[in-house]
Amino acid sequence: MMDRTANLLGAVGLAVAGNIEKTAREIINHAGETPAALVVIGYDLGPSNDELRRVLNLSHPGTVRLVDRLVADGLVERRAGRDKRAIALYLTEKGHRLRETLLEGRLAAIRPLLAPLAVSEREALATLLHKILSSMEPSDLERCRLCRLCDDSVCTDCPIPADFRDQSDRDQPG
């Protein structure tokens, strides 16, 4: 029974990921980590390129290209960072509007998968998902990666709160 449940959960996970990816591509016309970059930068903590790179698990050149594209699209602006060696990334007004549309679209893409469930079943599923996530022991960086597309306005009791402000090298693998 455990393997069947694991297999079913894996299939649902792929369905959720596929719906989110399709919706994000339709909304922002970019795939990959672009949607996650908008969400993470939109927390308004002014991440550096390196902090963003760690959360998105991208190479340095890949992150630079991503940020350059977001700046060219008028979604992100570079400002002076906390220290003089780095720049800080912030969303423009256009970027904030697109982020909100993206987060709304993400939830809209997932809701149809929950529609067959009764309210009590959705509540039970939420409890079970919270329990599964709470039992995980991810590092600070892994929590940020897991929550990189989360809408923090609807997740008021996060089972794995991520602190996007502290992405130090201690969480970097290898």
Protein structure class: mainly alpha
Question: Which CATH architecture would you pick?
Answer: Orthogonal Bundle
- Sheet-strand content, in percent, reads 5-15%
Largest sheet: spatial strand order: 1-2
The best one-word shape is globular
Order of helices and strands: HHHHEEHHH
Q: What is the average of the pLDDT values?
A: 89
CATH superfamily placement: Winged helix-like DNA-binding domain superfamily/Winged helix DNA-binding domain
Helical amount = 55-70%
Span from first to last CA? 36 Å
Total helical segments: 7
CATH class: Mainly Alpha
**What Rg do the Cα atoms give?**
17 Å
CATH topology: the name is Arc Repressor Mutant, subunit A
Biggest β-sheet strands, sense, barrel: 2 strands, antiparallel
Low-pLDDT sequence parts:
168-174
Strand segment tally: 2
Provide the domain count: 1
What does this molecule look like?
By secondary structure, the protein is mainly α. It has one domain (16-149): Arc Repressor Mutant, subunit A (Orthogonal Bundle). Helix content is 59%, strand content 6%. The chain contains 7 helices and 2 strands; from the N terminus they run H-H-H-H-E-E-H-H-H. It has a two-stranded antiparallel ribbon. Helix 1 (2-28) runs antiparallel to helix 5. The longest helix has 27 residues, at 2-28.
Task: Describe, in short, the structure shown.
The protein is mainly alpha-helical. It is about 60% helix and about 5% strand. It has helices at about 1-30, 35-40, 50-55, 60-70, 95-115, 120-135, 140-145; strands at about 75-80, 85-90.
Topology:
Elements: H1 2-28, H2 34-41, H3 49-56, H4 60-72, E1 76-80, E2 87-91, H5 93-114, H6 119-135, H7 140-146
Antiparallel strand pairs: 1-2
